[in-house]
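Technical note accompanying the year-one report. For the benefit of new consortium partners, we illustrate the data format agreed upon in the data management plan: each record pairs a sequence with a C-alpha cell string. No post-processing was applied to the example shown here.
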Amino acid sequence: MEQQEENGTENRENNKGETREEIRKETSVTLAHGAGGRQTAQLIGQVFRTHFENPEFTADDAALLQIGGERLAFTTDGFIVSPWKFAGGDIGKLSVCGTVNDLACMGAKPRALSCAFVIEEGFLTEDLERIAASMAEAAAEAGVRIVAGDTKVAGRGQVDHIFITTTGIGEVLPEAHTSGALAESGDAVIVTGDVGRHGCAILLEREEFGIEAQIESDCAPLWETVRQMFAVTPQLHVLRDATRGGVGTVLHEIAAESGVGIAIRAQDVPVDPAVRGVCGMLGLEPLYLACEGRLVVIAPQEYAGALVKTLRALPYSGQAAVIGEVTREHPGRVVMETAIGAKTLLPPPGGELLPRIC
C-alpha cells in the first residue's frame, strides 16, 4: 500500500511537471488559449495572475470592490464574434448581455456600462447603426445606461469587421454572497434553460457544414432572472453564466475552486432537439457549447424546487432543471451518469473548442 501511495504521488508530481513543461514549450498564443478551456486557465494563471495578483483579483465573473461604504461589482469583457450578426442577435446585443450577466452572477444590479469599439476601415455605417440600436435595446431591457466609450478605426484586414469591449459596474444586493468557491456538498446543481444554443447558432451561421436547422442564440440579459432567484432565497452559493466552454467547463471550474465533486445526470440536462441533432451529426457535446442566456446555479437542495418553479415562469428560463448535485466524492472532478445508468468522468475541456463565439 505504501508503494502504491508513493507511486501515486510520483505520478501526480510527474503530471504537474509535464503541465509546467507544456506551458514552457508554448512560444505563442493559439486559438485554443481563447476557447475557455484548460489552455485559457493556464494562460490566465501563468501570465496574468502572475503579474496582476492582488486581493481583489478574482476567478469569478466580476470583482467585488468596497468603495465609500458600498459593495460594487466591476467587470469587463471583449467580444469578437464571427460572424458579427447571427440568428437571435448580433455583436451589439451580445456585448451588453455578456457584461450585464457577469455583474448579475455576483448578485449585482447593473448600473452603468462603457463600451470601446475597434472598427475595420470600410465597415458599413448602416451596420454600425444596427449594432448601436441593438446595444441600446438590450441596455434598456437590462435597466442599465451606456455612459462612456471609445472608438478606434483599424486598417482593412487588421480587424474582422468590428470588435467591442464593454465594462460594467453594478450594486451588489446586501444579501448576495456568490462565488465559484462556495459550492457545498449536498447542494443542487441547476441550469436555467436548454444548453449549447449560442455555440450551435454561431456554428451554423458560418455555413461550413451545409446543415439547415432552426436554431437561435439564447443571448439575453439575465439580471431580472437573478433578482427573482434572490427573492426565493439569498442562499445562492454559486451563479455562473455558461459562455465560452459551456456548462461543462463551468462545472469543472466550480469543482476545482470549491474542492468538491459534481455529479450530473445526462438525461436531466435540457437540450433543444435541433441542437442535439446538429451535435450528433458533428460529434459535439452540447455541454461544451457556449450559452449566452443560461446560468449554472448552485444552491441548497431545500430551495431547488422553488427556484426551478420561479425560473420556469420567467421569459428566459422556461426549461430550467436540476441536473445534479455537489458531492464529497471525486473532488475537483465532474461525474456524469449516462442515459443507460453508467457513470463516467466528464473530461475537462481542452484544445480549440469553437473559436470566435463571443
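Partners are asked to follow this layout when depositing records. DSSP finds nine helices and 14 strands in the chain.
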